[in-house]
Each structure stands twice: as C-alpha cells, then as structure tokens.
Design brief:
Layout (H helix, E strand, L loop, with lengths): L9 E2 L2 H28 L1 H5 L5 H11 L2 H20 L1 H21 L3 H4 L2 H19 L4 H8 L5 H5 L5 H19 L2 H8 L1 H22 L1 E2 L12 H17 L2 H11 L1 H8 L5 H29 L1 H17 L8 H16 L15 H18 L1 H12 L1 H24 L12
Parallel strand pairs: 1-2
Length: about 425
C-alpha cells in the first residue's frame, strides 16, 4: 500500500508545475461546462418533451445542482479512500467515476425511448458526477500559494482559475461546431453526444496531470493534503469555514449567470440564433482569461480584499445591463465575462490561508464545496424561474444577492478582528 507521504518526489520547474495545473483544470472545467451547456440546449427537449419549453428548461436546471449537492459527500468518501490506499488511488477512482458517469450521460436514451426512466437515470448520473468531482479535489491552489515568492501569491493563486474560461471556451467551441454543421434534428438525436464522449478522453489527460502534481517539487516545502477529522474541524475552524464560504459568493453566482443563463434566455425569449450567443460567449471567455490574470496582479498590488471589494461594487452595475439581453446581448455577456475573470480569479485562493495547517486541506475543500452550492448550483434555476414569473429584471436579484453577501462579509472582515485568522493583512 502506497501513501502520498512515501511517494518519491520528482523535481520540476515552476513553469512545468503551472502548465500541468492549467492542463488539469482545463479538462475539469471542460467537462463541467459540457454538461452546463447541454442542460440548456439539449436536455429540456430530450428528457422533458411533454412539457412546455419554459417548464422543460426549469426541470433540466433542477437536475443541474445535484452534482454540487453531492460534492461534499464525494469529498468525504475521497478522504476515506485516501486514508486507506493513498491520494493517487483516490484521484484515480474519482476521475473514473466522473468520466464513466459523463460518458453514460452521452449514451442515455431520451424520454421518447424509455419514458420517465430517462430523467431519473440522468439525475443519478449527475449525482455520480458530483461524487467524482468532490473526490478528485486536490487542494492545488494552496500548494501554489505556498510555493509563490513574496508579493506573487495572488498571481500564483489565480493559475488554477484559468481553467474556468479556457475550459468554457473549449466546450462552447465544440457546441458551436456541432450546432453549426448539423441540422437541429441531427444535433438533438446524436450530435450533442460527441461532446460527452470527448470528456472521457480529456479525463485521461487530467488523470496523468494530477498524478504528476502529486509528486512534483514546487520549490518550497510541500503541504501534504492530509484530511482532518470532521468533528475537530467544525469545532475549531467554523469561523474560517463560514468566511471562506461566503466571501467569494459573488463570483460563484456570476459564473452561471453569464455562461448558462444567457443560453436559456436566448432559446426561450430572445430572437437571436444560439450560434450568435455562443460566439459572444467565446469572445467573453477569451477576455476573461486576461481579466483572470489581471486579478492576480491586482491582488498582489492592492490585496485580495480590495480586489474582491472592487468586483463586488461592479456587480450591481452589471445587474443594470441584464436588460440588454433582449436587444444588445453582447453588453451583458462580454462585460459579465470580464468581471467574472476579475472576481473568480481569486475565489479559490481565499480559503487556504485562513486555516491552520493541519486543517487546511479539509477546511478549504468544505468551504469551496459550500461556495459552489450557495453561489453557483442554483443560479440557472433561480434566474430562469424569476424571469418566467416576474420578468428579466428579476433575474438580476440572484446575482445581486451574491454581491450583497460578499460585501457584507468583507465589511465584517474589517470591522471585527475576530475574523482575522492565520493570514497576512493583504490576504
């Protein structure tokens, strides 16, 4: 039996480590956004054809958050596996679960073939995806921050987040090609499935990248990813968990409101071709790569709280532009992606420094899982439901709520010294 503590560490330059991290995260986010895009473009028609378009989309989005709800259970299961057979086996099993469940979705017949069994099985496979995602979490941001030289922790901390916009661009490009070169009937019948089959191929790349990271020398003392017992973690570190969960909430709420929500709105309410929306999102995704890098530069220069505070102040202004989805969708989409890069670029770097070393791995995992649940998981469902019931302007309420929560937590951080944990003032 081989554990991480006994594995041979190989030397690697920081450039090699960063490249490997980006590869791993791009493959993760690619699979993540393949499902997200399909939940708007495909699943309402394939699994809920007996309902009107709006209700079908809402039912599809109701299945969407199941993966996020399952992630904490996946993390707990992964911790158990790691304690028995080591982290390498844990990650291998988790990615196998994630990849096989994703391919199974690509093979799943629609409602017309097997009736209500189809959405039920889809729900089960979505839960399996969440278990795989939770079990594969590796805490790489903490490693990069630990290896970062003074004054560069923000820049190093944003590296894993580059996987978000790059992974989205790859997924959106694939759907753009599939919807553009296939007829609507061909796309719904079989075309969309190729995207899910592609996820399995990139999962193999992700597996090798992650296994290499386990034994890479970061040029600094390694932070071993040892899970902490849940009881002591909650008792001793509940404050950092709460702060690390809700401080980046605005960025998580923003994520799906600029990626998934515009696709659903265009299909149901706007007169634009879906290919046009995908092109706008691709442009926004490219710009988001640069704004993600900018978030690291700003964080190192002015501090992460000020960077988050700036993004939080800009989100209400973005909310005012949501009405442009009717006539000028590029305004909300492109501005939203730029702001997403600034906000989401530091979201994973918020948690690690707030926890004591012995709780850092598990505390960060819990905080990030909860942030996904409270901020991102229900965004497409709530945004569309508010639009259907009260109009487009109401959908901005969800986005605004994330900014309010983040702003309030930042306010508490400055007001009460009790919220200043194991970190430097700029973190």
């Amino acid at each position: 039996m081989t554990n991480v503590e006994t594995r041979k560490i190989h030397s690697a330059t920081i450039d090699e480590v960063i490249t490997t991290v980006i590869m791993a995260r791009v493959t993760d986010y690619f699979g993540f956004f393949v499902y997200a895009i399909a939940s708007a473009l495909v699943f309402p028609r394939l699994f809920f054809p007996t309902f009107d378009p709006v209700t079908g989309m809402l039912l599809s989005f109701a299945i969407f958050p199941l993966a996020f709800l399952a992630r904490p259970f996946g993390s707990a299961l992964g911790n158990y596996v790691q304690s028995r057979v080591g982290q390498a086996v844990r990650i291998t099993i988790a990615l196998m679960i994630l990849g096989s469940s994703t391919v199974a979705i690509g093979l799943l017949p629609g409602y017309e073939s097997i009736g209500w069994v189809a959405p039920v099985v889809l729900s089960g496979l979505r839960i399996a995806q969440g278990i795989g995602l939770g079990g594969a979490w590796d805490g790489i941001t903490a490693q990069l921050q630990n290896a970062a030289p003074d004054g560069r922790k923000g820049l190093y901390g944003m590296v894993p987040q580059l996987g978000g916009p790059i992974g989205f661009c790859v997924a959106a490009s694939l759907f753009y090609v599939l919807t553009g070169f296939l007829t609507d009937k061909e796309f719904i019948e079989y075309g969309w499935r190729f995207a899910f089959f592609g996820v399995m191929a990139v999962n193999v790349v992700s597996l090798f990248a992650r296994l290499r990271l386990l034994t890479a020398d970061f040029g600094a003392e390694r932070l071993e990813p040892k899970p902490a017992p849940l009881g002591p973690l909650i008792r001793e570190q509940w404050k950092p968990i709460v702060i690390s969960t809700f401080m980046p909430l605005a960025s998580y709420a923003l994520l799906h409101m600029v990626t998934v929500f515009p696709l659903a709105y265009a299909l149901l309410y706007a007169e634009y071709q879906i290919s046009y929306i995908l092109v706008l999102q691709l442009i926004g995704g490219v710009l988001s790569v640069f704004s993600t890098i900018a978030s690291g530069v700003l964080s190192d220069r002015y501090g992460r709280p000020k960077t988050l505070g700036l993004c939080t102040l800009l989100i209400p202004l973005l909310c005012l532009t949501i009405f442009t989805l009717d006539d000028y969708p590029w305004i909300f989409i492109i501005c939203g992606f730029i702001l997403l890069g600034l906000a989401h670029g530091q979201s994973s770097a918020i948690a690690p420094a707030r926890f004591k070393p012995e709780f850092r791995f598990s505390g960060t995992a819990i905080s990030i899982n909860l942030s996904w649940i409270f901020g991102a998981a229900f965004a497409p469902l709530v945004g569309l439901a508010l639009t259907a019931w009260f109009g487009l302007g109401a959908s901005a309420i969800y986005l605004l709520s994330g900014a309010i929560v983040t702003g309030y937590v930042l306010y508490l951080r400055y007001k009460f010294s009790a919220f200043r944990f194991n970190r430097k003032p700029t973190e």
